Amino acid sequence: MIQINYLAFAIPLFLGFILLEYAWSRKRAKSVHQFAESIANLNVGIAERLTDLLTAGLFYWVFDWIYQHGAIFHIRENFITWTLLFLLTDFIWYCYHRCGHQVNLLWGFHVVHHQSEDFNYTTSTRITLLQSIARGLFWSILPWIGFPPHMIFTFLLIHGTYPFFTHTTLVGKLGFLEWFMVTPSHHRVHHSSNDIYLDKNFGDILIIWDRLFGTFAEETEPPVYGLTKPLKSHSFLWQHFHFLLEMALAFISATNGKERWKIIFGKPDDLDPQLREEGETLFHIHQSKGELNIKLQNYILWTTGLTMLILFFTILLEQYFTIGQLVFLSFWVLINVISTGAMLEKKAWVFYLEYAKVYILMGILAFSPISQAFIWILLAFLVCLTWYIRPIKEWYVHVVLCV
């Protein structure tokens, strides 16, 4: 019997809902998807699914170790304990999420989720590895209390699924559900940069915590999505690390321990906003070079589709790949999300990433049971690629990127 990883099916499931939302928005003549924003969002989501290969089992092992060696109680399964665990997981999420907006270090992990100036199902995919780790640390209190890991993971799957459906502008207010559930209306408020909406509606499934602790806000005016100071970049790497770099620059220029402590654990609003410009100058970050032509859009779209397909089968059949193949496949997926982000900004250096993808594919084949003669053919092909790198680059930059 073939052994498969059923978590892989999250990819086609969520992609299907994204396409349904897009079709619905077109039918209603309501534009809620920008091409570059959607691709940048999906890039972050693809990287997060890739890291699940490493983190899903690791989190379960950590929770199990805490439960086996440090649990205060050993809680049994019944209706009351399942209900209590649901309330606790949602409350811990609220605490984590609120800290993620009010503590610089945690905001550095969470900020990626709020960068998009669109609000749709692709936005919900903007979850990073660092954010997942921080969230897991908060939830580690549950096995310490005495909840078995399998109970915890049941609700973690729910918390990973439900928020996906609150990231949309196509669903209005939902009547009496608005009183106790987090709805799309509530979450639109949370993702908005309007002054009256800042640091509001941190709940994940239940909105009751926001109502109890004074962080609730009703949707009363049209939301403006994204950061209060827009990032204006679709670079995968810059999106992930810009705020951590701003913290590092502030930390270096700090003159005493108190200032350094405040940089790490203070509020994001306390950081000098000019640090963003310093980082952009240091790493030559600038806005995209004009509109993307239809050929480049199609190339990016097909590349993203192929990346998701490869990722799906990598996760689905992970037990049948060698360690070497998994390493090369992971690098190939990661380079793809970095390169498509660079294509959105028409960066000429993306050509070298495209070249690297070919070499990685050759590495995957090298770990496969192929004949020695075919390996020599691959080596000859790589030599030709390297020999003609300059003319191929000129063609790529002018024809593909149109720079």
From TrEMBL:
Lipid bilayer topology: Multi-pass membrane protein
Cellular localisation: Endomembrane system
Source organism, top-level taxon: Bacteria
Enzyme Commission number(s) from the entry: 1.14.16.5
Any one Gene Ontology molecular-function term assigned to this protein's record: glyceryl-ether monooxygenase activity
GO cellular component, one term: endomembrane system
Transmembrane segments: 6-25, 79-96, 136-158, 299-317, 323-342, 349-367, 373-389
Domain Fatty acid hydroxylase: 82-215
Class of enzymatic activity (EC top level): oxidoreductase
InterPro entries the UniProt entry points to: Fatty_acid_hydroxylase, Sterol_desaturase/TMEM195
Main location: membrane
Record keywords: Lipid metabolism, Membrane, Monooxygenase, Oxidoreductase, Transmembrane, Transmembrane helix
Protein name in the entry: Alkylglycerol monooxygenase
Species whose genome carries this gene: Aquirufa nivalisilvae
